Amino acid sequence: MSSRRSRTRQSSTTSRISDDQINDLVSKLQQLLPEIRNRRSDKVSASKVLQETCNYIRSLHREVDDLSERLSELLENTDSTQASIIRSLLSQ
Amino acid sequence: MPLSEFYRSDNETNESPQQKPTDISYIPNDEFVELVWEKGQIMMQGQTSKARKTPVSSNFLFHTPKVQEKEGLLDVPMSEMGLHPDDDMVPWLNYPLDDYCSDLLPEISGVTGNDHNTLNVLDKRSSYNHSNKDSHLHNVSRSSHILDPSIRSVVTDIGSSNCRNKPQNLEKMVQKQDSLLPYSSSTLLNFSHFSRPAAMAKANLLNHGPQKENGFPGRPGLDSGKVGLKPIEEPRCVEKSSNMVVDANVGKAGVETEKSNEPVGASSSVCSGNSAERASNDLTKNCKRKSHDTEDFECQSQDAEEESLGTKTAATSRGGSGSKRSRAAEVHNLSERRRRDRINEKMRALQELIPNCNKVDKASMLDEAIEYLKTLQIQVQIMSMGTGLCMPPMMFPTGMQHMHPHFSPMGIGMGMSYGMGMGMGMGMGMEMNGGPQGHPHMFPFPPTTQGSRHPIPGLDAGQGIPIPRSSFPVYGHPGQGMPMVFPQSPMPGFPMNPAVRQMGSQMESPVVAPTSKDPMTQLSNQSHVANKSLNQSTLVDQKDEVLDIGCSTAGVD
């Protein structure tokens, strides 16, 4: 989708086009960020979006670490059946 | 004012340096060399004044530094802007600078105004000169026998003043120039101000270009000494140099130089003293502001630069309107480039955060980031569900399942069965209410092929609804008022085979739920939000759910 479009646009080159496409992507990115998703009204600068993305990814990393720790703890404590269910769930 | 007058006054004022005490023989050559270059570039297209040129050019190679140094006086404030001298400029001395010399000479007239100031400051500065490093000595001796005494004294002044370049001093000097100087010199000052930004750009380019290449290893001591003396200026210089060098402004700087020179001629010969003074005042303010911002961030220094450009543009409009447009374009370019720099910086940060991202292209970088973000969100959701499985906090109204029957066949367990629909609802709800840490734990769940589905036990949120397994932990959400009962509801789309059902009932047992507290809070948050976002559908099905509680483990069959 977006990657295909970006490829097509890239062929026509120049920074103007890539600006549009980057704006597109940035707004998409913005929709993924809970921090600034609802700020549609005000214009959010691209660098702000990128900054927030970085922050958000970091926080997600932290969360994943946290959760995996917790999960491994849980898996140790649970009986095998339950553990297998969880594992199957996680291994998708 | 007529040029002839201009030069006359210039000559007169140049006498004063000659009478200055030449007690200071140390010339910090590196400083004056730098100034040489500042002016050297600017003056390239200067007007001609042969009278000055002849005597000076007889001074062999060093006349250029000398002359330019004098002009450096005009730009003393510039060094405050981070253009302080570099040792590395010394090698440039060895190149034939005669070409510049002739062009530069006319500009010497500008020195007049500054000479007064230099005299004022001389007393304070001379002390510093004595403390100069020995490394200056060889240069001093060289220049001293070449230069005549009067010029040398001027040079000394310049060097010392440069060494001491405190912002206050410079401001003072600028102010003095404005207030003390006679009518004639005001136009000169105007000129000097005009040329400053351009000179700055040039000087940066020239200073730091060679600096990198030559390295000039011979004088570390001098360097350190300078750093100690001018702690404020150092960072600025580096920052400036990075800006200018990285941006490869060469062409632009050249253009600026031309433009700045253009109005100069006009103002010195045509402009009334008033307008000239006003312009110089503006620029002085600009300078002051810059000097205050010394420690500021890169962006801000660029801002200041831009501003000065803008001011120049305004002043230039008197001279020629043709250059105005290109100037505006330059300003725009600057801001655009700044913006791009910021974005690129963030891009790099992002790239570091995304594993296996080798994309150089911005667009694919962003694509990657988006995908990775989604993946991460899903991962977090799954994991939180995994932890949630062990405690029974995930309770969802059966209504949700009904609402999204098309996902049902592929649903797995409690997580999967309400997969997409529920995840959506939860996610949205949480984000709406979410604070900084309000990452949705529930996200659209990809349908899976796991066929297991187990009944989800109800969770009482404080309403005392009977729970099949009494050992279930009750999360206290007193204010919630929404019974989070999640009974097994009749789901035609969910054929349950006995084995799976048995597994499901095993899942219900609160084996580990009470063991950890953090997950509980987390999950209780989730359920809280879920309650809010799902109130309606839950209400619809509440009756059914309550009825179903009793047989929650019985399954549908």
Automatic annotation (TrEMBL), chain A:
Q: Which organism is it from?
A: Lactuca sativa
What InterPro entries would the database entry show?
A: bHLH_dom, HLH_DNA-bd_sf, PRE
Query: Which ranges carry the BHLH domain?
Result: 6-60
Q: Does the keyword Transferase apply?
A: no
Q: Does the keyword Transcription regulation apply?
A: yes
Where in or outside the cell it occurs: the entry states:
Nucleus
User: What GO biological process terms does the UniProt entry carry, in alphabetical order?
Assistant: regulation of DNA-templated transcription; regulation of growth
One GO cellular component this record assigns the protein to is: nucleus
This protein's name:
BHLH domain-containing protein
- Database matches in Gene3D superfamilies: Helix-loop-helix DNA-binding domain (4.10.280.10)
Recorded GO MF terms: protein dimerization activity
Pfam families found in the cross-reference section:
bHLH_ILI (PF23174)
Keyword annotations for this protein? Answer: Growth regulation, Nucleus, Transcription, Transcription regulation
TrEMBL record, chain B:
Q: Identify the keywords attached in UniProt to this record, alphabetized.
A: Nucleus, Transcription, Transcription regulation
UniProt biased composition (Acidic residues):
295-308
User: Residue ranges of region Disordered?
Assistant: 1-25, 254-335, 506-530
Q: In what residue span(s) does the BHLH domain sit?
A: 327-376
Q: Which PROSITE patterns match?
A: BHLH
Biased composition range(s): Polar residues? 266-284, 518-530
Instruction: Give the main location.
Output: nucleus
User: GO CC terms on record?
Assistant: nucleus
Q: Name one GO biological process term.
A: red or far-red light signaling pathway
Question: Which superkingdom heads the taxonomic lineage of this protein's source?
Answer: Eukaryota
Record's subcellular location: Nucleus
GO molecular function, a single term? protein dimerization activity
> What's the protein here called?
BHLH domain-containing protein
Question: What is the source species?
Answer: Lactuca sativa (Garden lettuce)
